[in-house]
Design a protein that fits this description.
Blueprint lengths: L30 E3 H8 L3 H9 L5 E3 L2 E5 H15 L20
Antiparallel strand pairs: 1-3, 2-3
């Protein structure tokens, strides 16, 4: 009988790096290149293009696009207001006539 070599298993593949791991914050006093904004927000090219179509202000200089941090924050404030409009009366209740939903 012929002796066989023990089969060796291939080395495990390294874990895939998630390109969205290094999410960061945006400050109002910053000027960000689009590539850095994409990295911080975890967005791809299509995500930034959609944000531009929805009103994100991008300034072009040379071949690069730049965004002011305060423009990013204003864009997300507007987006938040559109997605979650205030409800009801002056105190946020559901009944606009009385100012409070509970009586």
């Amino acid at each position: 009988m012929i002796a066989t070599q023990p089969t060796s298993h291939p080395a495990p593949r390294p874990a895939r790096r998630n390109h969205r791991v290094g999410l960061g914050s945006v400050r109002g006093d910053e000027l960000l290149p689009l590539a850095e904004l994409r990295r911080r927000l975890g967005l791809g090219h299509k995500g930034i293009a959609k944000a531009q179509k929805m009103g994100l202000r991008v300034t072009r200089f040379g071949k690069c696009g730049y965004v002011l941090g305060k423009s990013v924050l204003a864009f997300f404030e507007l987006l938040e207001a559109q997605q979650h409009p205030p409800r009801g009366g002056p105190d946020g209740g559901d009944d606009p006539g009385t100012g409070s939903a509970i009586r």
